[in-house]
Write a structure and sequence with these properties.
Radius of gyration: 20 Å
Number of helices: 11
Strand order of the largest sheet: 3-2-1-4-5-6-9
Helix content: 40-55%
Number of strands: 9
Strand content: 5-15%
Distance between the termini: 39 Å
Shape: globular
Largest sheet: 7 strands, parallel
Structural class: alpha/beta
């Protein structure tokens, strides 16, 4: 039985992952938390209190006796005075804080460090699906910070021998999903007409249960050591198709107005919503052949089942 230290344990992905690890009953789990205010884990989960993921944070107590670290915690948005993401602040947490944790983990004898990165490291749009062999092309500060963290972790692995596993997911959906996806679900549930009836893009997504299953696979699979993996549901959807299938699992009509995507893009740019338009209208696909071939992994949950689970709290 391995001992696992989980950061980001109280987040959207972390809670689901903690539940899966406990369900399997094959590992002991220590969850990193900032305080007791948001803690609702079973008594079998030990808690490690760390105030901040920063360059000088002391992880010695939390790492004592740990075999595996799963690092989910990250800073995603730090807005500066110009209204843009501050790369320096993102680096403070996502690079300096991550590398500090990893260095102390290696010194403590941790065997494997699983790092949740982002498909943004590859880029934010494509025509041909991304693979792990593609050269990185981060566009946004968050993705740039994740790439720099990946590179630092790989260098640390070479020096220390601690195994590194890097996972780059696309948009993650599930019950209580944050951000734009959660808003889309709410709008479909309320029957709000959406101008997305003629969007013929293709995007990869990953359901929360599929991502959690993949992370668990990477905990102790021998072939995962020192590898980078892209992960998704294995089925790409247009935004139009995604909303239609969401409406079906909700048992509601899909109120999708067929507005030409080009017109939507122009309107969004005029309103300062260019990034939102890209996410809704552009294509971003990933190829999960490596996960299938190297790890023998298949997404256990279909897209329709994943959507059904995601919309459950809204029904």
């Amino acid at each position: 039985m391995s001992s696992i230290l989980l950061t980001g344990a109280t987040g959207f992905i972390g809670k689901a992952l903690a539940g899966k690890i406990l369900e399997q009953n094959s590992h002991s789990l220590v969850a990193v938390v900032r305080n007791n205010n948001r803690v609702d884990f079973p008594s079998s989960v030990k808690l490690a209190h760390v105030a901040d993921i920063a360059l000088k944070s002391d992880w010695s107590s939390a790492l004592s006796g740990m075999d595996i670290v799963i690092h989910l915690a990250a800073r995603a948005h730090v807005i500066n005075d110009n209204g843009n993401n501050s790369l320096s602040e993102l680096r403070r947490v996502n690079i300096d804080g991550t590398l500090n944790l990893a260095r102390q983990a290696a010194a403590a004898g941790v065997k494997r460090f699983v790092f949740l990165s982002s498909i943004g490291v590859n880029g934010n749009s494509n025509i041909k699906p991304f693979t792990e062999a593609d050269s990185p092309g981060p566009v946004e500060p968050y993705a740039q910070s994740k790439l720099e963290a990946e590179e630092a972790l790989q260098q640390l692995s070479t020096k220390t021998g601690m195994e590194i596993v890097i996972i780059r997911p696309p948009l993650v959906y599930g019950p209580g999903a944050p951000g734009n996806f959660g808003k889309l679900l709410e709008w479909v549930a309320r029957g709000v007409p959406l101008p997305l009836g003629s969007t013929h893009n293709l995007r990869s997504y990953v359901g929360l249960d599929n991502l959690v299953d993949f992370i668990v696979t990477c905990i102790d699979h021998p072939a995962a050591a020192n590898e980078v993996f892209l992960v998704s549901d294995g089925e790409d959807l247009s935004t139009t198709e995604l909303l239609r299938r969401t409406a079906v699992v909700m048992g509601k009509p899909a109120r999708l107005v067929p507005i030409p995507p080009r017109l939507l893009a122009i309107s969004a740019a005029a309103l300062g919503k260019r990034d939102l338009a890209r996410r809704l209208l552009g294509s971003l696909r990933v190829d999960i052949s490596k996960a299938r071939e190297v790890l023998g992994w298949e997404p256990p949950i279909s897209v329709d089942e994943g959507l059904k689970r995601a919309v459950g709290p809204l029904l």
